[in-house]
Amino acid sequence: MMLTITYDYLREEEVDLIKAFSELGVSVNRLQSNTPLHIGEVDGVFLIRNLNHKTAITMAGIIESTGGTTVNSYLTLSITWNKAVTTALLKKAGLPVPDTYVVFEPMADGLLKGGRIVKPASGSWGRLTAVVNDGELSLLMRHARDHLPILVQERIGDGSDLRVFIINGSVVAAMMRRPPQGDWRSNVARGGYAMPVKVSDELSEYAIKAAEAVKAFYAGVDLLIGKDGYYISEVNGIPEFKAVSRVSGVRVGFELAKAIINLLKR
Hints:
Blueprint: E1 3-7, H1 12-23, E2 29-32, E3 45-48, H2 53-65, E4 69-71, H3 74-80, H4 83-92, E5 100-103, E6 116-120, E7 130-132, H5 137-143, E8 150-154, E9 161-167, E10 170-178, E11 193-196, H6 201-213, E12 218-226, E13 229-236, H7 242-248, H8 252-264
Parallel strand pairs: 1-2, 1-3, 3-4
Antiparallel strand pairs: 5-8, 6-7, 6-8, 9-10, 9-12, 10-11, 12-13
Helix pairs in contact: 1-8, 2-3
């Protein structure tokens, strides 16, 4: 069965994946998003690695509709790009999540308590995410009309979180991320500090169940650290992994390539 990797441009992760497949003796076709995708019969497995999630979701939908298999699937990519739907599915699965409201239209202050995290339902790297205090919600929403719906969530901990990387139902690597000075967001892309972490049985169980809840073959699961335990913040369907590879000492791209090859053999 043929294997293709899709991407917008080759980041460190995609370069490592292509190298890993080569080391494992598997040739990989490349499909860059600047090449028009012809709607017709396709075959094989497509590893969706596009940075632009709208492109990724659309491409996965077309490929699956015309005979191909995508990793992650169209369903998983659609769910994980929507933090509101992801949170609802995690809660349905009995997993701990921050107390969350989803706001669809501008609203007045006073309906939601201040000191909460506000973020768009779709987005990455902590962009357009803010801590909102009493009296600020209506002002923020006037400036965020183009980004509705938004999530308003309780604030958990100091912003530190855990990224656990799941492949085919197993934990392969993990790290802790702490916010840089003067910020409360721990995203490494925004200057957060990453460090190794030992994965407990509880942490492993939560991360694996979170990936299962969104039907992900592989995922980066983010968990906040609260006073009374862990809370699942997000599940990433096209996760970056250079930081967790560096910190954990696990070559995540190689592990993912091996899992994809096993999928090809089915």
